[in-house]
Amino acid sequence: MIESMAKIEIIGLFEELDSTLDILQQVGTVEIDEIPAIEESKQTHIHRIHLDETKEHLKSRYEELMHSVSEILEILKEGSVEEAPLGVETRDELLKLSPDELIEHTSRMTRDVRRLGRQQRNLCQDIESTRQYEMLINIFLPLLEKAGSIGELEQIGIILKRDESSIIPILKNRLDEITGPETQFFNQKMSDGRTGVFMAIAHEDLSAVRRLLGTEGVAEYHIPREFRKKNLSESIESIRERIEEIPNELAEIDRKLLEVKKSHISLFRFIHSISADRLNQLSILSRLVRTQYTFVLSGWVPASKLEILQEKIHKQFDNRVYIGRVTLSDLDFLHVPTLLSNKGFFHAFEVLLKLLPPPKYGNLDATPFITFFFPLFFGIILGDMAYGFILLAIAGMIKWKAARGSLISDIGSVGLAAGASTVMFGFIFGEFLGDLGARFGLKSLAPWLHRESAIGALLLLALGLGTVHIILGFALKAYLGVIMRHIKAVIEGLSKIIVILGIIGTFIQLLAGFPEIVRYVSFVMIGAGVFGVLFTEGFIGILEIFSNIGNILSYSRIMAIGLASVILATVANRLAEASHNIIAAVMIGFVIHLINFIMGVFSPTIHSLRLHYVEFFSKFYLPSGRPFQPFKKIGGDFT
C-alpha cells in the first residue's frame, strides 16, 4: 500500500533549531522540503538560512574529520576480528565533542594507522617489484653455481632476447681475444626463450669488455640500486633475502592493524557516523527560513507517524517549538512523496518495483499484484520439481546469510516464492529433471498438462492468464478513475474490458459451437466497447485495441519458454543415456541440466517482469512519483 502522507510545518525559537534537527534526524520520519524562494532584502523579515562563519568552520572541520576517518576505515577494512563494542557512556561523551576535539581525540591513533598503512602499501609494492627480480634469480643463479669460486674477478650479467642468442659464439670469441682464456663465460637458455649470460673477468679488462658489448649492441643487465652490492653474486643474494623478508614484515603489520581494528574500529565508525550526520544537518539548513528570533521548517511525514512526532516535539520543547499539520492545496498534491508500506511477505516483493520510479501519490501500489502473479508465471515457465528444490535451497541460503530486512534478504524471499511455485507446477506437470521423474512413476495430473505433448492446451492456458492479467489492469484503471473522479478513465477501462470479452465470446462461439446468440451478444459488446473507446480516446483508441490484443498474445511466451526448458532437460537425459558410461552420463546430464537451470532462472525472471512492466502496468500504473526521502541518520545505527 501507499502510505498516507501529512504535510507539516514546524515553527520554533531559533535557538532551538539545532536541537529540533537532532530530534528529526533521530526519529527519521520527516522529509524536509525547501521552502519556496523568497526575495532577500532588508525590508523583509523572513530570510533563508545561510551558514555563518561558525557553521562554515564546523562544516569544514567535519569534512576534514570524515575524510580522515574514511581513510582509516579503508586501511582497517581487511581482516576479520572480533570487534570491541563501544559503550553507551563513550558514545554520549563523543556526541558532546566538537569536530576539533574529535580530531584531537583520534590524532595519535590516526597517525599510527596511517603510518602502518603506508608501510603496508610500500611492502605490497615491493612484492610486485620483487616478482620481476625472481626472474633474475632464476636466470643467473644456475650460472653462478656453474662458475663456482670466482675470487676477485669482476662480474657481468647479460640477458639476451630470443632472437639475439646467435651472437653468443661471436661474443665469446671476441672476449677470448681481449682477455685471454682465463675469463669465465657461461650461458643458459631459459624456458621462455631468453638466454642468460654470465662473465667473470679481470678488473683491468672491464673497460675493454664493456666497450665490446657496446659495439655489439648488447646491454649489460644492471641490478636495481637498492640491491646493488659489490658484485652480481652478492646482489642476487640480497634480492633473495629481501624476497624472504617481505612476507614476515607484512604479516607483522597486518597483526598490528588487526589489534587496532579490534580495539578501535567501533570508535572510528561512530565518529564517521557523527561526521556524516552533522554534515547532513548543515546541508539541510538552506531549505529553511528564519526571522530574527524564529525558524520555519516545512516537510512531509507519514500520517501514521505524525502523532508520535508531535509528542516527541512537545515533550522536548514544550511551547518553544510548535508542529502543525497543513491542509493540502492542489499544488501540494503534485509534490507529495510516495512511500510504499507493505508488511511481511509483500514487503519483499517491493524489490521488483525498484527498477521503476515509484507510483504517483494517490495511484495504486502494484506490489500485491506482482507478489501474486510473478511467482505464478515463474513457476509455470520453469515447472520442474528438481529445479524448484535447487532454487529453494539457494534462496534459503541467501535468506539465511543476509541481514534481516536487507535488499539481499528480500531477493531471497522472492526466490523462495519462485522456488515453491516451481515445485508445485513441476508436480502438476509431472516433471523432475525433465522426463526423468516419469521413469519413477511421476505423471502430470492430467494429459492436457503434459508440456511436451499438450502444447495447444498450454498455449490456451497462457493466453487465458494473459487475458485475466490485461482485464485486471483495465479494471484497476477504472477503479482509479472512480476514486479520482475521472469519468473518462472509468469509461475507457470498462470499454476495453467489454471489447476484450466480446472478442473472446466471438472466438468461443466459433470454435466451441455455442448458439449463435452468443456471437450476436459478443458483437454488441464489441460495438459498445468500441463506441466507449472512441468517446474517450478518439480514433487512436481503436489502434490501442489492436495493441491490447497484441499484449494478450505476448503471454504465449509463458508456454514457449517453458516448452524450451523441458525439451532441453529431456535432451540432457537422452544424451546421458546414449553415452553407455555411468561417469560420462552423470557429467553430461549434470552440465546440460546446470545450463538449463541457470537459463531457467534468468529467463523466467526477465520475461515475467516484462509481462508486468510492459503489458500489465501500462494499463493503470503511473510511475511518476517522487520517492520519500526522510531526513535521518545516514552514518549508521549504533543503538
Give the number of DSSP strands.
Answer: 11
Mean of residue pLDDT values:
84
Order of helices and strands: EHEEHHHEHEEHHEEHEHEHHHHHHHHHHE
Class by helix and strand content?
Answer: alpha+beta
Tell me, briefly, the overall form.
flat
Weakly predicted, low-confidence segments = none
- Radius of gyration using CA atoms only: 38 Å
Which range does the strand content fall in?
Answer: 5-15%
Tell me the helix content: 55-70%
Q: Characterize the main sheet.
A: 6 strands, antiparallel
For the terminal residues, how far apart are their CA atoms? 29 Å
How many helices in DSSP terms? 19
Can you put this structure into words, describing what you see?
Strands 1, 2, 3, 7, 8 and 9 form a six-stranded antiparallel sheet that branches. The model has no long low-confidence stretch (mean pLDDT 84). Helix 2 packs parallel to helix 4, helix 11 packs parallel to helix 18 and helix 11 runs antiparallel to helix 19. The chain starts with a strand and ends in a 12-residue tail after the last strand. It is an alpha+beta fold.
